[in-house]
C-alpha cells in the first residue's frame, strides 16, 4: 500500500524534481566555469590565498539553493493535498494516520536527499580536482548547514500548509524563518564545526514538525 | 497519532522559546542600548603619567588620572613619540627625552603597534599556508607557487597543478624529522603576506606541543626547535616581521600568560599579564624607544601596563566604565529575560549556542508569568491536566518566552 | 451489527456558537439514510463528525462501534466517502487513479469502475483537472463503487451536477444499495431526487433537529392543507400548525394532524375559513413544509 502512496507522491513532484536537477546542473555549471575563469585570469596563488585567508567561497551561489528546493518540493507535495482539503482522501485510506503522515514526509525527504547528494557530490568532486583536501573539507563543513536548511524549509513549509488555522500558520512561518536563519548565518569556513551535530539532531527531530498540524487537520481544530 | 502530535507540539513550543530568546533581547537591545567606547590609554614619557582620550557626548576629552583636562595640542606634546607627525608639523618636536636626543628615523624604527583580538585566535583555519622564500635575492618578497600542509608528513602542493612537489616535500620532511618533529602539526603561526620588510617563515606546534621554527632559505629548509619555558603550552603566536628585529612576535599561552619570542636565542621574555583573559580581551602591544605599553581591553575595562625596554614593570593603570548592564536599561533587560541566546559571538568566529543567563532575580518575573498562566488555566477548567502541568513547568523555567510559546500553541486536549 | 452508525447526545459548538445539542439518531444496517436541511443548518458539521474529520465537543458518534474520529484502518476499509464537490486528486488520470486506489482495498471491483468510465467520453490519459464537474463526479462514484464499502457516506452528491449526471449517479447508487448489508448515508439539499430512494431521514433547520423519522411515515403523516380566509393575523406556528404560508387570502398550513383536528383547531382560534382542502405532497413539498421557504 505504501508503494502506491509513493507512486502518488511521485506523480505530484516528478516534474519539480526534474526541474530541481536541472537547476542544480545549471548552478554547478556556473560555479565551475566561473571558477575556471577565475583561475585562468587571476594568479592561482592569489586565489588560494583568498580562500584560505579571505574566506573566498567560489561556491557561494548555492547557499540558498537547497532551501529553495526544499520549499518547492514541499509545496509540490502538499499544496495539492491542502487545496479543497484533499488530504482527507489520504487520511481516510485504510492506514494508520500517523504512519501515513510520516511516510509522506519521508518520501519528500528522500527526494531531497537525492537532490542534495547530487549537488554536494558534484561540488566536492569538482573542487577536489583543483584544490587540496583541506579546502574540500572546509567547503564540505560549510555546505552542511546550507543543506540542512533545505530540510528545515521542507518541514516548515509542509507544516504551514497542513496547519488549518491562519494564526498558527503565521506563528510557524515566523519561527521557521528564524530557525532557518540559524543555519544560514554569514560566516567563515568551518564556523559551524562545533555545532554541526546539534544542528543535525534538531533537523532530525523536525521530521515530526508536521504531526501536530496533521493531528489538528484530522480533528477539525481551529 | 496523539504521541506524535504531542512530540510535535513540544518541538514547536521549544522552537518558539529558542527564537524568542534570540529576537526579544536583540530587539530590546536595538531599541535601548547605548554604545560605550573604551578610552585609549597612553603613557607620557614627558611627565611619566598616564593620559587617556575618552569619547564623551560625541566629543573627545583628553584627561589624566587626576582628571585634569588637556587640549589636543597639550596632549600631543605629552605624547611626542606617538604624536610626532603633528608635533613635527607644528615644529614642536622636542630635541630630547630623558636626555636621549630624538632621531626621527630611530624613533620610527622603534615604534610598534600590534593588536591581537580573540577573533584572530578563536576561529577555524584551513591548515594550508604559503612558505615565502626568505632570501629572494631581490628587494621584494614574492609569494611562492605552492602551499604546504603538515599531516603525517610535510607536503608542498603546487597550486597550478594541485599536485605534491615530491622532491621539495621530501627535503623539508627530512629536515623536520631530523629536528625531532612529531607529526601531525597542531598549529601554524606566520605572516603570509608579502607586504613586510622580510620573512621569518612559520612557527609550528607539533603533535607533542613542541615549537619549531621553519623557513624557506633559497628553497631549502631551515628548521630549528625552539625550547619552551617550563610548563608553557602555546595558544597563539602573532608573528610580526619588523626591522627592529628584537622579537619574532607575541606569544599567548593556554594559561593566559604573555611572552615575547626574542631573536636572541629564541628566548622567551615574559610580559605582564595580570587579569588577562585571552578568550575575552583584546590585547594591544605598543612600543617606542623608551617603553613597552601593554593594554588589555575588556567590555568594561582597560588595564594598561608600562615596562621599560628591559621589560621591567614601571607603571600600571586601570580604567573601568559602566555599560548597559549597570544602568536601568540593562537591569530591566536582566529582569525580563531569564536568558538570551546568540548564535554568533564577538569573541570568536564560530557559530554556536551562546546562552547568557541573567544573573538577577528573574525567578520573580518567571513566577509572575507562572501565576498568570495558572490563572488562565483555572478559568478554563477546574483540574489541571498532565500537559498543563508540563506547560507550567516550562513557564517556570523559561519565564516570558515559555509563556508566549505555551499560549500561542495551546494544547488541544 | 444492527446499527452501523450511532449518534448519541451529540453536542457541538463552533467557538461559542451552538451547532448541535443532544442530537440522537441511529442508522440501521442496510438502510439508506438522508440528512436533509438547508445550507447553514449544521449538515456539514454532522458530516465532518461522521467522516472522522471533526471531533465533537461532547457526545458520541460511533461507526461500526468505533469513535468516528479515530477509526481503525481495518474499519476504514469498510467505509467509502464522497467529499462535497466530488473532490479527488485531479493531477491523476482515470487509469492512474484507479490503479492507485485499487492497492488499498482487498475487494476492489475494477469492472464496475471501468463500466462507469466507458459511459464517460474521456480520453484514457485525461487528467481529472481537465474534466467537467459531471465527469469528475462519475470518477469519484466509480472509485467508491469499486471499493465496495459496507457504509457509503456521501456529502452532497448532487453539488454542481446537472440533471443527467444526478440521475446517473442515483441509478448506480440504487443498484449498489440493493446489495447485502450496504448502508448509505446521504446529505443533500436537492430533495426531489431522493424521493423513493431514502428509507430514513433527519431534517435540520437553524434551531436543530426538526424531524427524525422514516420517510414513509413522514410522507404519510405530514399533510398540507389549503383554505381561504381573511383573518391572516390569527395564523401562527403552534402545536398543531408546523408551518404556514399566506398569499393574499390563500392560506396554506402544514401539520401532522388529520384534517378534522386542524379544522377544529382553526375554529378554536376563532378563524373563519372556507374551501378547506388536503393537498397531496411529494418529498420536496413535505421538506419545504417542515423547514419553511426561507
Based on the model shown, name its key terms.
heterotrimer, B: 413 residues, alpha+beta, 4-stranded antiparallel β-sheet, C: 294 residues, alpha/beta, Rossmann fold, 2 domains, 6-stranded mixed β-sheet, 14 strands
Question: Can you give a write-up of this model?
Answer:
The complex is a heterotrimer of chains A (222), B (413) and C (294). With 222 residues, chain A is mostly helical. Chain A has 9 helices and no strands. Chain A has one domain. Chain B is an alpha+beta fold. In chain B, 29% of the residues lie in helices and 29% in strands. Chain B is built from 9 helices and 24 strands. Chain B is flat and about 90 Å long. Chain C has 294 residues and is of the alpha/beta class. Chain C has 2 domains: 212 residues, P-loop containing nucleotide triphosphate hydrolases (Rossmann fold, 3-Layer(aba) Sandwich); 70 residues, 2-Layer Sandwich (Alpha-Beta Plaits). A 6-stranded mixed sheet of chain C has the order 6-7-8-3-9-10, with helices on both faces. The longest helix of chain C is centred in the middle third of the chain and has 15 residues. The two termini of chain C are 40 Å apart. In chain C, 39% of the residues are buried. Chains A and B meet through helix 2, helix 5, helix 6, helix 7 and helix 9 of A and helix 1 of B.
Amino acid at each position: 500500500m505504501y508503494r502506491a502512496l509513493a507512486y502518488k507522491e511521485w506523480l505530484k513532484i516528478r516534474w519539480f524534481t526534474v526541474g530541481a536537477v536541472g537547476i542544480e546542473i545549471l548552478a554547478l555549471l556556473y560555479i565551475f566555469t566561473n571558477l575556471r575563469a577565475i583561475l585562468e585570469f587571476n594568479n592561482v596563488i592569489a586565489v588560494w590565498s583568498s580562500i584560505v585567508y579571505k574566506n573566498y567561497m567560489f561556491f557561494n551561489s548555492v547557499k540558498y539553493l537547497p532551501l529553495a528546493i526544499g520549499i518547492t518540493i514541499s509545496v509540490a507535495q502538499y499544496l495539492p493535498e491542502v487545496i479543497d482539503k484533499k488530504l482527507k482522501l489520504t487520511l481516510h485510506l485504510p492506514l494508520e494516520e500517523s504512519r501515513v503522515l510520516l511516510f509522506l514526509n519521508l518520501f519528500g525527504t528522500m527526494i531531497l536527499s537525492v537532490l542534495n547528494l547530487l549537488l554536494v557530490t558534484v561540488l566536492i568532486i569538482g573542487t577536489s580536482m583543483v584544490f587540496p583536501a583541506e579546502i574540500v573539507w572546509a567547503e564540505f563543513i560549510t555546505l552542511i548547514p546550507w543543506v540542512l536548511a533545505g530540510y528545515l524549509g521542507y518541514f516548515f513549509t509542509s507544516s504551514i500548509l497542513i496547519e488549518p488555522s491562519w494564526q498558527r500558520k503565521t506563528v510557524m512561518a515566523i519561527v521557521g524563518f528564524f530557525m532557518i536563519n540559524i543555519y544560514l548565518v554569514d560566516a567563515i569556513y568551518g564556523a559551524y564545526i562545533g555545532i554541526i551535530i546539534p544542528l543535525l539532531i534538531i533537523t532530525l527531530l523536525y521530521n515530526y514538525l508536521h504531526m501536530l498540524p496533521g493531528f489538528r487537520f484530522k480533528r477539525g481544530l481551529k | 497519532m496523539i504521541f506524535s502530535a504531542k512530540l510535535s507540539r513540544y518541538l514547536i513550543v521549544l522552537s518558539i522559546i529558542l527564537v524568542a530568546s534570540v529576537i526579544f533581547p536583540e530587539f530590546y537591545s536595538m531599541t535601548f542600548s547605548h554604545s560605550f567606547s573604551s578610552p585609549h590609554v597612553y603613557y607620557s614619557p614627558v611627565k611619566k603619567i598616564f593620559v587617556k582620550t575618552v569619547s564623551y557626548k560625541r566629543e573627545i576629552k583628553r584627561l589624566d588620572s587626576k582628571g585634569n583636562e588637556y587640549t589636543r595640542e597639550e596632549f600631543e606634546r605629552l605624547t611626542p613619540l606617538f604624536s610626532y607627525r603633528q608635533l613635527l608639523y607644528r615644529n614642536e618636536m622636542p630635541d630630547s627625552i630623558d636626555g636621549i636626543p630624538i632621531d626621527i628615523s630611530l624613533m620610527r624604527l622603534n615604534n610598534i603597534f600590534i593588536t591581537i583580538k580573540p577573533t584572530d585566535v578563536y576561529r577555524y583555519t584551513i591548515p594550508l599556508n604559503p612558505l615565502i622564500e626568505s632570501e629572494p635575492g631581490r628587494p621584494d618578497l614574492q609569494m611562492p607557487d605552492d602551499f604546504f600542509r603538515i599531516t603525517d608528513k610535510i607536503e608542498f602542493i603546487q597550486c597550478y597543478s594541485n599536485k605534491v612537489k615530491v622532491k621539495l616535500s621530501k627535503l623539508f620532511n627530512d629536515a623536520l624529522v631530523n629536528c625531532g618533529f612529531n607529526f601531525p602539526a597542531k598549529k601554524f603561526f606566520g605572516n603570509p603576506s608579502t607586504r613586510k620588510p622580510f620573512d621569518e617563515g612559520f612557527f609550528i606546534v607539533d603533535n607533542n606541543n613542541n615549537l619549531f621554527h621553519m623557513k624557506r632559505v633559497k628553497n631549502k629548509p631551515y628548521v630549528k626547535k625552539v625550547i619552551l619555558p617550563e610548563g608553557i603550552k602555546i595558544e597563539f603566536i602573532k608573528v610580526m616581521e619588523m626591522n627592529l628585529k628584537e622579537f619574532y612576535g607575541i606569544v599567548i599561552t593556554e594559561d593566559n600568560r604573555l611572552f615575547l619570542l626574542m631573536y636572541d636565542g629564541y628566548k622567551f621574555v615574559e610580559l605582564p599579564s595580570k587579569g588577562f583573559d585571552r578568550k575575552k580581551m583584546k590585547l594591544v602591544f605598543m612600543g617606542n624607544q623608551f617603553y613597552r605599553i601593554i593594554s588589555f581591553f575588556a567590555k568594561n575595562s582597560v588595564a594598561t601596563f608600562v615596562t621599560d625596554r628591559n621589560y621591567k614593570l614601571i607603571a600600571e593603570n586601570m580604567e573601568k566604565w559602566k555599560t548597559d548592564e549597570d544602568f536601568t536599561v540593562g537591569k530591566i533587560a536582566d529582569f525580563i529575560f531569564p536568558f538570551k541566546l546568540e548564535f554568533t559571538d564577538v569573541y570568536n568566529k564560530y557559530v554556536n549556542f551562546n546562552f547568557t543567563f541573567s544573573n538577577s532575580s528573574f525567578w520573580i518575573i518567571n513566577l509572575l508569568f507562572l501565576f498568570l498562566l495558572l490563572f488562565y488555566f483555572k478559568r478554563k477548567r477546574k483540574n489541571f491536566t498532565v500537559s498543563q502541568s508540563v506547560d507550567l513547568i516550562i513557564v517556570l523555567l523559561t519565564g516570558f518566552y515559555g509563556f508566549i510559546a505555551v499560549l500561542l500553541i495551546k494544547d488541544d486536549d | 451489527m444492527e446499527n452501523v452508525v450511532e449518534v448519541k447526545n451529540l453536542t457541538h459548538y463552533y467557538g461559542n456558537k451552538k451547532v448541535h445539542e443532544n442530537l440522537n439518531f441511529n442508522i440501521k444496517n442496510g438502510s439508506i439514510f438522508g440528512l436533509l436541511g438547508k445550507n447553514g443548518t449544521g449538515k456539514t458539521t454532522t458530516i465532518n463528525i461522521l467522516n472522522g474529520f471533526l471531533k465533537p465537543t461532547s457526545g458520541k458518534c460511533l461507526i461500526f462501534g468505533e469513535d468516528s474520529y479515530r477509526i481503525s484502518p481495518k474499519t476504514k476499509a469498510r467505509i467509502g466517502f464522497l467529499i462535497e464537490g466530488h473532490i479527488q486528486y485531479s493531477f491523476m488520470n482515470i487509469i492512474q487513479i484507479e490503479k492507485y486506489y485499487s492497492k488499498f482495498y482487498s475487494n476492489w471491483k475494477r469492472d464496475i469502475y471501468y463500466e462507469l468510465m466507458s459511459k464517460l467520453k474521456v480520453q484514457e490519459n485525461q487528467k481529472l483537472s481537465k474534466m467537467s464537474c459531471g465527469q469528475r463526479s462519475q470518477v469519484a462514484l466509480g472509485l467508491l463503487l469499486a471499493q465496495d464499502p459496507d457504509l457509503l457516506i456521501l456529502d452532497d452528491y448532487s453539488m454542481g451536477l446537472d440533471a443527467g449526471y444526478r440521475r446517473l449517479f442515483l441509478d448506480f447508487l440504487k443498484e449498489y444499495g440493493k446489495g447485502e448489508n450496504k448502508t448509505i448515508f446521504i446529505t443533500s439539499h436537492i430533495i426531489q431526487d431522493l424521493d423513493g430512494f431514502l428509507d430514513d431521514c433527519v431534517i435540520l433547520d437553524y434551531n436543530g433537529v426538526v424531524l427524525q423519522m422514516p420517510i414513509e411515515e413522514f410522507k404519510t403523516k405530514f399533510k398540507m392543507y389549503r383554505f381561504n380566509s381573511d383573518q391572516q393575523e390569527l395564523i401562527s406556528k403552534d402545536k398543531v400548525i408546523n408551518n404556514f404560508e399566506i398569499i393574499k387570502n390563500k392560506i396554506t398550513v402544514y401539520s401532522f394532524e388529520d384534517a378534522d383536528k386542524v379544522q377544529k383547531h382553526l375554529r378554536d382560534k376563532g378563524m373563519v375559513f372556507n374551501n378547506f382542502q388536503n393537498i397531496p405532497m411529494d418529498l420536496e413539498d413535505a421538506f419545504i413544509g417542515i423547514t419553511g421557504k426561507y
